[in-house]
Amino acid sequence: MLLAAQRFERVNWAAVEWDIRQKGYSIIPRWLTKAECYTLRDLWSSSDCFCPTVEMDRHHFGIGQYRYFHYPLPEFLQQFRHEMYPYVANIANHLWSTSRNPSPYPPTLEQFLEACHAAGQNQAGVMMLHYPTHGYNLWHQDRHGSLLFPLQTILVLSESGTEFEGGKLLVQEEYPQKPAERHIIGGNIGDVVVLCTASRPRYGHGPRSGEFYHGVAKVTSGERYSLSCLFHDE
Ligand SMILES: O=C(O)CCC(=O)C(=O)O
Ligand SMILES: [Fe+2]
């Protein structure tokens, strides 16, 4: 399973950037074919590409399991992460630049990961998640080290309505002295969701940025798989 660069070129990245500015996330619908989702899901039962399973309830993260991939990543995911990076880095450089640092993120993933590894962050930031019926994922941010890339992607690998009910991806933004703002993203098989990892830059009046969290509502029937692709290593 290989990925053609044209698939990234066809995405309307200006619209993705606009969405992220406005609400902190953007959905690229049906970017993966169902067959690709099934192939990725099949990796779950192959033990040789994953680190040990984490039971989410043991850590009070929710109900379900996740498995970090170890390096080398499966070819498709390696390609996905590397080819997606320049586009999200471009958006991140527009949104998170400062006058002191107008281009905070390097143009290639290799360069960004080199910095992560130099900071001792060596665990590939890519994992697969599985939620059984009644599974869910509590509000969280995927930030475990000092170096963090401000956007992350979630690949939805199961079909809403036929394979699972409920299980909607949610985001929440918190500002001091303001009720939290919540959005239901949802997401269906093949969708790639690009979202803020920890904060969304704000312009104009009020606090400059709020804390950005995501989570997954309870799967009320069936089971749901997803894949989390961070651009930092942990
Ligand atoms: O299952 C999901 O849709 C979200 C999982 C998650 O927390 C992530 O991808 O970082
Ligand atoms: Fe997450």
What does this structure look like?
The protein has 234 residues and is α+β, with helices and mostly antiparallel strands. It has one domain: q2cbj1_9rhob like domain (Jelly Rolls). The protein contains five helices and 15 strands. The chain has a seven-stranded antiparallel beta sheet with strand order 1-11-7-15-5-4-2. Strands 3, 6, 9, 10, 12 and 13 form a six-stranded antiparallel beta sheet that branches. A two-stranded antiparallel sheet has the order 8-14. A hairpin with a 6-residue loop joins strand 9 and strand 10. The model has no long low-confidence stretch (mean pLDDT 93). Bound molecules: 2-oxoglutaric acid (AKG) and fe (ii) ion. 2-oxoglutaric acid binds next to strand 13 and strand 15.
Provide the structure class: alpha+beta
Q: The CATH topology is what?
A: Jelly Rolls
Kindly give the count of domains: 1
Low-confidence segments: none
Shape annotation: globular
Question: What string, H for helix and E for strand, traces the elements in order?
Answer: HHEHEEEHHEEEEEEEEEEE
Radius of gyration: 17 Å
In round numbers, the mean pLDDT is: 93
Structure ligands? 2-oxoglutaric acid, fe (ii) ion
Main beta sheet strand tally, sense and closure = 7 strands, antiparallel
Beta-strand share of residues: 25-35%
N-to-C terminal Cα separation, in Å? 26 Å
Main CATH class = Mainly Beta
Give the number of helices. 5
Strand order of the largest sheet: 1-11-7-15-5-4-2
Assigned CATH architecture: Sandwich
| Fraction in helix | 10-25%
Strands, total number: 15
CATH superfamily: q2cbj1_9rhob like domain
Family: Belongs to the iron/ascorbate-dependent oxidoreductase family.
Domain Fe2OG dioxygenase: 120-234
InterPro entries: DUF2086, Oxoglu/Fe-dep_dioxygenase_dom
Protein name: Fe2OG dioxygenase domain-containing protein
